[in-house]
Amino acid sequence: MHFPQKNIAIKIGCVVVVGSVLTTLVYAQSSKKIEQSPLAAEDAVVNNAAALLQHGRNIFRYDTYGDETFWGDALQLHQAIQGSQFGGVGPGVSPKTALALGLKVDSDALPAQVLAKLRQGQIDLDDVGVTLALLKNDAVVGVKGLFNTDGSLKSMGLTCAVCHSTVDDSVAPGVGRRLDGWANHDLNTGAIIAAAPNLTPIRNLLQIVYPSITDDQIRAVLGGWGPGKFDAQLLFDGKALRPDGGPAATLIPNAFGLLGYNLHTWTGGWGTVTYWNALVAVLEMRGKGTFFDPRLDDTNRWPIAATARFGHTSVDNPEDDQVTPKLPALHYYQLSLPAPKPTPGADFNVAAAERGKALFAGKANCSSCHRSPIWTEPGLNEHLPSEMKIDSFQADRSPDGTYKTMNLAGLYIRERGLFMKPENKGRFYHDGRFRTLLDVVNSYDLRFSLGLTPQEGQDLVEYLKSL
Q1: Most exposed residue of 45, 60, 182, 200, measured as fewest CB within 10 angstroms of its CB?
Q2: Which domains, ranges and CATH numbers included, belong to the chain?
C-alpha cells in the first residue's frame, strides 16, 4: 500500500510530539517521586551513611592512630603536662595555661556539677590536677590522655580535632560545645611542641639538613609560628623561614565545606582529603600506619623526607595499621561537615552584599575562579604563582609548585573573629599575610588592575562575608 511522503512526515511528527509529551510527563512524575520519596530507616544506603558518619566523627574527635608513641613515649609531652607534682617535669600545664595556648574544652564532656562550678568561678584554673581531670573526661579537644592506675599520665596522643575543631565559648572563653571542622586559630602548636622535654626525634630529622642544630634553635623556630599556624613541611624540607625571615608556617585551614571539589590544602599536588588524611595521620601526627608517595624521594626538594624514606612508610604487620582502616569513615565525616552560614544583617550588610555580588561576577572577575556553590574551581583548582602575581615560596614546597584556589565559604567567621581571641581574628591567605578581607580585595585590585573604587571594595567584602 502506498502512502504519500507528506502523510508519513505528519504521522512521524505526531508520534514524536506525543512521545515527547509522554516523556516529559513521565520525567515529571519520576522527579516528583524522587523529591517526595523519604529515606527509609531500613534502607541499606541510609544505614551505611549513618554508621560511617558516627564512626568518622569518633575517629576525628578521639582517635590518635597510635601517635602517643611519638607525642608521649618519644617527646615525653605528657610529662610536661602533668608536671613534677604528678611525677612529670616542670610546673605542669594548668587549665589557665592550656587555654592560653589555645587548647579548648568540650563542655558536653563535663559532668553537670563541674559545669555549674565552672560557671560560678569555683574551679581552680591554676590547678594542674584539674587539667588531668579534664583529660580523663576526654574534655580537652583533640588531646587524649592515657593514665596509670595511680591517676598519673602514662602517655598522651593527639587527634584531628586538636587543630581542626574549636568550641562555641557557650560556657566561658575556650569552653563550650564542639565546632568540628573550624580551624583553631588560637592554637599555638609551635609553643606546645616546644614544651616537650625530649626533642631528640625532631632534632635527629633536622640534623639531616642542619647537622649542628640545637634544641634551643628548634624551640626558637617552633616558638616563631604563633597561634593558628603549623608548618606541615618543616620535617620534609627543613625550610624554617621564608626568604624575608618570617616563619614558614601556614594557617591551619578549616576542614568544613570540602564537598564537591578537588585539592584541599593551600598548595597543589598534595591530593584530596583521603591523601592528606593519610599523610597527616602517618607523617605529621606520627600514627602507626602506611603512607606511599615516591615523589618524596626527591632529595633536592625534600631532603629530610627523602632520607627518612617518608614516602615508603608502613607498619611491619598490616594488622597493626591504625590509620588505613579508618580513612573511609574519616573521609566521609569530613566531607559531611557543612560550612557555617552567616546571618544576614548580623554578619554582613545585605544591600552592600547585593552590590558586591555583581562586582564578584563582573568588574572584579572573582567568579572566573571561585564558582558557586563550591567557591573554587571544579576540576584542577590550582594556579602558578606567576598567575596569582605573588611569591612562590610556599608553592615551591609543594609537588606541583602551585597554589590552590581557596574555597570561600565561611570567611565571615575569621573576619568577625568568632570564637577566637581578638588578637587572632582575621588573617587571610595561606600564611595570614592579609589581616582583613579588605586587605585581600585591595591586593587583588592592585595586582590585577581592577580599578575598584573604595565603595566597591567595601561592597565586595560584604559579599564575601555572605558566602
Answers
A1: 45
A2: 52-198 (no CATH), 350-466 (1.10.760.10)
